[in-house]
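Model: You mentioned two targets. I'll fold them one after the other.
Researcher: Yes, keep them separate.
Model: Target one:
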Amino acid sequence: MLNLTKFEDLFASDDATYEMPQYQRAYAWGDKQLDQLLIDLREQPLKKDYYLGHFLLERPDLNKRHYYVIDGQQRITTVAVFFSCLIEELQLRERNGEVLVDSDGSPVQPWRWEERYLVRLGMRRLRTVVADDEFFNRAFIQRLPNPQPDPARQSQKRLFHAQQVFKQAFAAETDTATLLRWAKLLATASVSAFEESDKVRATQIFAFQNDRGAKLTTLEKLKAYLMHRAYLDDSTNQATYTIAHVERFFSDIYALTEEIDLGEDTVLRYHNVAFGPTWEDAFENVKTGLRAAAEDAKAAWITSYCDSLRQSFKTVVEVTRRAAGHSHITGLLFLRSEDNWPLILKIQRHHGHDQALCESLYRLMEIVSFKMEFSTGDYRSHDFHSLAKHYTGDAVALRDTLREQAQNGFRWWWTFTQNFHDRLDGDHHYDRVTRYLLWQYENELRRKSPNSVPVSGADFLNVWQVKRWEGTLDHITPQNPDAVEYTKEFAKTRLHNLGNLALLMLGPNASKGNTMPQDCIPLFIESTYLADREIGKVLQKDNQWEEPHILARKQRIVDFAKAYWAVPAG
C-alpha cells in the first residue's frame, strides 16, 4: 500500500517502531549527503513542501506497528541523528536562559521530538543493525558524553561523524528560529511510504527502487536482483526459504565490509574477475549462471553464489589482517593491488589451509609487482587477472608460470629484469615505490642486527592510522637548503637519487626541514631506525654528505634490491 504522507506521520502512532534488517548495509552517509541535507534546509523556500524521498517498509505482523526499513534506512537514521543533536543543542540554550518559542509565539518543547522519533514510554522508536545499535543507543538515545565508536566499524565512525557535523552546524547557527525552521521542514517533509507485509513482494519492489540519499551500490542492486530471481525462478514454492538464505549471507557480507576499506563494489569486482565464468560484469555473470542452471537447481545456484561471495569478503578481511603483519601480501596490496587481488582470492580459496604455499606464490607475485613498478619500460599490461580467472588449483604449474613472469615479464619482447636493473642504476628515484624499497631495506638491516624486530606491514601501510611512518620520502640533503645552491648537475643526478632519499618518519627526523644533514647529526644517530643510524655514522665520521656518500649509499641499496628481488631458484 502506497501512502503519500509527512515524515512525522510515520511515527504518529505511539507504538510505531522501525528496525534495520541485518541483510541491509549499515549506515553509509558521509559528507556529501550530510552537506546536501543542510544545504537543502538552508535554501528551502518558505511555504513550499520539502520532499525527503521514498520509504519501503516491510510489516511482517499486521497486528503490530513494527516495520523493517527495506529502503530509506539512511534517511530515517539521519533524521533521528538530526533530532537527537538538535534536542541537545536546544536544551543547552534553555540552560543558558533562552526561551524557546515557535514562529507563532507558542512554546517549543524538545521532549516532544524525543518521544516521536527516539524513545516513547521506554520504547525505542528506531533500531539500527545489531552491530551498531548499542553505539546508536549511547550516542543518540542516551546522549552520553563523548561516545566512542568501535574503530573496526566504519558505519559507527560515520554515525559519529554525522553527529559532529550536525552539532557543529547547530552551534554555528546563532538564530534559534532558523534551527526550529529546519526541524519543521524535516518533520513535515513529504514522503512516499510503501508498506508491504509479504517479504517476496517487498523484495520485488526494492529491486526497482533507488536510494535518494546514498546511491545504491552495485552489490546492493545485485542482492536485490538475486532475491528477485529467487522468486521468479522458484519451482518448488520455497522462494521465501531461498530469500532467507540470501538475507543471511548478505548479513554476513555487510558485517565483513565494516572491517575493510576497499569498498563493497571493489570486492565484488575482484570476486567477479576471479570466479565469474566470463569477463562480463557481475550482473551478466549471475545471469549466465542462472541460465545454465537446471530449473530445479536455480535456487541452489543462488545460495551457492552468495556463499562464494561471502567467502571472498571473508578472505579480504583475513588477507588484510595478514598484510598488517609480516607477509609478502603487504607488498601486493601496496604496489599493484588492483592487479593482485583476484589472484590472491583464488590462491586463498584453493590453498588457504597451507599458508607456507600461499606465501611462496605471493613472493613470486611480489617480485613481478615490484619489477613492474620499478622498471623504466612502459609496462601497462599484466596477466594476473587471466591467471586468476583460469586457475583451478595446480600450484606447481602456477609457481612455474609466476617464476617465468618474475624473470621475464608478461611478454616475450620485454627486457624485464634488465629494465629493472637499469632503473635501479639510474639517477632519479623520487616516487612512492622507493618508499617500499626503503622499507624493505630497513627490515634487511634489522634482520642482520641482533635483537631487532622488523617493521610490520601495519606500521608501513599505516593501517591503524597512528602514523608512525610518514607517507612520503625525505631528502637527506634537502631540496631547498638554507644558504646553499646546488649545481645543475647535482640537482639533476644526485638530489633525487636513491642514495639521497630516506623514509620520512614522524618525530625529530621529520622536523629537520631544510637543515643540512651535518647540522643535525644527533637526529640520525638517535633515530630508532637503523637506516637513519647508518647515515648518522657516515655524518659523524666525515661531517658532510656529498656526492661520494650519496653514491655509496645508493650502491648498498641497489645491491640489496637486486638480490632481494632476484627470482628464487626452483
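Model: Target two:
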Amino acid sequence: MSTAILTGTPVPGSPLEGDLRSLGFDVRTAPDAATALSLLASAPAADRVALVDQRFVGHLHALRLALTDPRFPAAAVTGALTARPEARAALSAALTTVTDGTATGRADTVPDAPAVHTGGAGVVTEAGQPVTRTAPAVFELPLADRVAAAIEADGTPVQRPELGSLVAAVPDTPADREQALAAVAAVDDEAVRLRSAVKARDGFFTTFCISPYSRYIARWCARRGLTPNQVTTASLFTALIAAGCAATGTRGGYVAAGLLLLFSFVLDCTDGQLARYSLQYSTMGAWLDATFDRAKEYAYYAGLAIGAARGGDDVWALALAAMVLQTVRHVVDFSFNEANYDSTAATGASAGGKEGKAVVGTPTTALSSRLDSVGWTVWVRRMIVLPIGERWAMIAVLTAVTTPRIVFYALLAGCAFAACYTTAGRVLRSVTRKAVRTDRAAQALADLADTGPLAELVARVTRRPARALPGVLPLLIAVAGGAAAVSMAAFGPLDSPVVVLGALVYVVTSGIAVARRMGGPLDWLVPPVFRATEYSTVLIFAARADVPGALPAAFGLVAAVAYHHYDTVYRIRGGAGAPPRGLVRALGGHEGRTLLVAVIAAISTAESDLPPALTLLAVVVAVIALTESIRFWVSSGAPAVHDEGETA
C-alpha cells in the first residue's frame, strides 16, 4: 500500500482524500513539516510515499500521472510530490532540509501586484490557456513544491508530467479556488485520459482503423482489472490460433486466419493503450509486448508455409527469407537508434577534446522536416515503410483472398523496398551529420554485434592494427567476410570441407570489424551485416540440401537465434544492459554458429543428415537463450519502461 501524507491547511468538503484512496494510497495527515517527516520515517521502506497539499484542486488523472507512474523515481505537479523507494532517501533529506528552515521556499511581499499567470504548473483551461489571477500579498510555495525543489537541487531528477488541459493547482484564496474548480469542471479528464492512451506517433492503419475503438477496449479491460500483460498474452494466443488456421491449407482456414490475425493486432494495440490508460508500465511488459510481436508474426509465417505444403506448394524458403529480411530490418532500426541515442556533433571544439553540440540536423533531416510540413506526405512516408499495422493488414487480407506464395512475394517485395528506403536515408544522415559516438553508443553497438569467443580472440590479436583502420574500413571488412561466407554456402560443394573456408574467413573478418571502438559514422551497419550473414547462410545451406525437413529446421534455428538477438535489444533499451558474456559465449556468437552450420554441412555423410542436426542446434540455442532470458526478466530489477515500439 502506498502512503500519501496530506500537508497544509485543511479544506472542508475537499474530495482530495477520496481521490487519493481511489489511487491506492493510505492517507495520513500532517499539520506541519516536522510531522510529515515523522510520518515519512514510519512508512515502510518499500512503499511509495506522496506529499500532497490539502488545498490541491485538480483532475484525478493529473494526480494519477504525478503519483502513480512506475517509470520515475520521483515525480511532481503543483501541490503534489511522490517518491518511489529508490528516491525515498532523497525525499527524506529534502524534507529534513525544509523542516530545518534552510530551504523555506519563496515568500514575496507584493502589495498591489499586477495580475500574474499560474500557467501549466497551476490552472489551465481546456484550450490550454493559463488562467489569470491576482497574486496575494504573501505567497509561500506549498510544502510539496518546496521539497520537490530541494530534491532537484540535491541532484535527483523529478519528473513533471505534461498535463495539457488538465488542472493541478493550489489556490491561495477562496476566489482562486472557485476559479480552479470551474476550470476542473470545464475539462473532461476521462476524455483526456482516453486520448492520451493512444500512441502519439503511429502508422496510418493503426491510427485510423484500430485506435478509434481499441482505446475503449482498453478502458473496458482496465475497469475489469485486466493487466496489459494478460492482454498481450491473449494477443499471442489469438495469433497462434490464426497460424493454426492457416496451417489447415483450406480457403476457410485462410479466411479465419486473416480475421484472427487482425483481431490479434487489435489486442496488440489494446495492451499498450491499457498500459498508458492505467499507467501499468513494467520492464517485463515492454519485453513481452515486443518479443510476442515477433513470435506472433513468425509463427504465422510458419502456419502459412505448413498450409501451403498441404496444398502441394513448398514455400518454406520464402517464409524463412521473409523472417530473415524482417529481422535484419529491425536490427538496422535498433542499431541506428542506439548509435545516435546521445551522439554529439563533430565540431572543432569536440575534436579538441571539449564537449560537442548535440546533433540537431542535416540536409536529409531538413528535407524530411519540409516534407512533414505537407500533411499527406507524413502518412505516405509512414505507410511505405510497412510498419506493423500496415504489414499485418496486408498479410491478413492477402491470406484470405490469395495463396501463401503470393503473401510471401508481396511481403518480401514490400519489406525489401522499405528496408532500402529507410537504410538509405539513415546512411545519408550518418555521413552528413558527422556525429561523434559516445562510449555508451559504441558499447551498445558492440553488444548488438553478438561477438563470440572466436571473433573475440581475433579482435584481441588484431586490436592494435585495427585502431589505425580508416573509418569505413571495418564495415567493408565485415561486408567482405559476410559475402565470402554466403558465397561459399551458395556455391561450394556441400559434402566438402571447402564450404568451411568461407565461414573461417567470416570469423577472422568479424573479429577485425569489432577490434576497435565502434564509433565510426557507419559502424551501426556492422550488427545488421552480421545478422544477414548468419541467417542467410543457414537459409542457403538448408535450401541447397533439398531434402524434406531441412528448411523447417532452418526456420526453427533462425527463430531461436533471432529471439536471442531481440532479447539483447530489449535489455539494452530497457536500461538493463546487454546479456551476460557467459550467455553469448555459450551460444557461440554469430560467427561461431555460422562456422558450426558450415561444418555440419561439410561433414554430413548424406544430405538427409542436415535436418536433424539443424533441429538439434535450434533446440540447444532455444533452451539456453530462453532459460536465461526468462530468469532475467522475471527477476529483473530494471526500471519500469513502456516501449512505444518501432515504426517497422
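Researcher: Noted. Anything on target two?
Model: DSSP finds 26 helices and 13 strands in the chain.
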